[in-house]
Amino acid sequence: MSEAFEAVAASLRGRVDEALDAALPARPDDDPMRLREAMRYAVLGGGKRMRPIVALAACRAAGGSDEDGLPAACAIELVHAYSLVHDDLPAMDDDTERRGRPTVHVAFGEGPAILVGDALLTRAFGLLAEAGRTRPKARAAEAVARLAHWAGIDGMVGGQALDLALGQDVGDLETLERIHLLKTGGLYAAAAAMGGLMAGADDGVVESLDAWGRAFGVAFQHADDVLDGDQPRLRARARTRVGELVEACHRIADGFGEDGELLANIAQWVADRMERALAGEDLD
């Protein structure tokens, strides 16, 4: 299953990269502070593209096509990229390298990096608004609302605030999962819900996809913690929770029948990847 999933993911990743390239502004000769260049640098520098793949998988589960889901896929990746640019800043995590390259504020300056994040965030909402020109406007408007919720103070931003406040000093699983739900699960919930909305799904289907995204996002972050050695006091319980949350994802995906196969494979990939790494396999 893992090799088959990786092949599908690679194909979807290429599709998303092409769409992102088209969605980002070109680099004209007149580019004050090289902002357009920096936007492209921030987004097109690699990555697993898991959030957009989730959006496309959810769109498929809801009966839509990959083409239907691309606006949601690109919007969620632009928000993710903006969050990384801002997270890397000296006032936040103060990272100087990401994916083997200098971070945006190192390569382009701190001021331009802040503006790049702002520009990527607003472009994400622009893509969803543009999708409303060719899709039911109520569904596109709900996609905008979902992204605003999960990217804002009740989602990713709120989770980042908790993470900054508590750092590695999280003493209980409930608090850790609250951070993971907001900081990581929120964008996966938005990706899945927006994928369904781009397919024209009804409210019940969208809520099921949102729930899948929340469970998957927490499992994804627990798995990363286990592999990175973060939150060592909670490592054993986090590993157990990955299995429980992946099972919850499977139950939701099963409700979509064959259309939910990719959602199920994505969830299983997280559990398998964690166990393979713990067994000593090199995943690079």
Question: Could you characterize what this model shows?
Answer:
- 73% of the residues lie in helices and 1% in strands.
- Strands 1-2 form a two-stranded antiparallel sheet.
- The chain has a single domain (2-278), classed as Orthogonal Bundle (Farnesyl Diphosphate Synthase), CATH 1.10.600.10.
- The mean pLDDT is 94.
- It has 284 residues and is mainly alpha-helical.
What's this entry about, in short?
With 284 residues, the chain is mainly α. Helices cover 73% and strands 1% of the residues.
Secondary-structure blueprint:
Blueprint: H1 2-23, H2 35-43, H3 50-61, H4 66-87, E1 97-98, E2 101-102, H5 104-108, H6 110-131, H7 137-151, H8 156-166, H9 173-198, H10 203-228, H11 235-254, H12 261-278
Antiparallel strand pairs: 1-2
Helix pairs in contact: 1-3, 1-4, 2-6, 3-4, 3-9, 3-12, 4-6, 4-9, 6-7, 7-9, 8-9, 9-10, 10-11, 10-12, 11-12
| Main sheet summary | 2 strands, antiparallel
CATH superfamily: Farnesyl Diphosphate Synthase
Total E-strand runs: 2
The total domain count is 1
How many angstroms separate the termini?
18 Å
Q: Bin the strand percentage.
A: under 5%
Task: Report helical residue fraction.
Answer: over 70%
Average pLDDT figure = 94
Q: What letter string, H or E per element, gives the SSE order? A: HHHHEEHHHHHHHH
CATH architecture group name: Orthogonal Bundle
Q: pLDDT under 50 segments (min length 5)? A: none
